[in-house]
Amino acid sequence: MKCVFYMFFLLPLMVFSQPLNYKDNQGGTFSIGFRTTMSGFNSHPEESSGLGTGAQFRIQFADRVNSDWFFDYINSSIGDYASRTDYHIGWSVLYYLRPKTDSFLKPYLLAGHCFDYTKLTDNFNQSNYSERWSSAVQGGVGLHFNLTQRLDLSLVSQYMIHLGNNVHAEIHDGVVDFHDEKGSSMEGHLLFNVSVNYKIADLW
Fold first, then answer.
1. In terms of pTM, does the model score above 0.85?
2. Where are the beta strands (DSSP E) in 6-81?
């Protein structure tokens, strides 16, 4: 029993608590993390809020400038007749509002860009679907809770605007129809994500 307790509780705590030896400043810090993402709303009135998961890594350029490189997989429903899946691959620049490096709370502003793949699927006929590739820009605010020097819990709220065609689903007489409206669309949604991140090394 003591070995199990040591392996699953004390050993990870010891690893996460190990200090990171910075070469000069925090520039060059590399970290990896996992995230849970919620899409607060979508463009179609019958679309539910989306929920998904993802991963990210960070490369910090200076004490007050960091970057997130992320992947998200998000699912939502459209009434009871269709579903929506979004894949996000992108990056954000983080600007810390406090220069202090060892504070427990570290608020920041963020702005960035991502590529997005969206697929709408008929719940009754999987071969009936519509898909879209687009790009997006995002901006928002975030907050690190620095649990140790290496480990942080981060909360982010951001608004993402998709630059591309608008796709949506409707049902008529029991048949699901997908509409792809050509031309630029400023479709947007509010995103919230929670991530846990661990600093691996100081690269330079």
1. no
2. 29-39, 50-59, 65-78
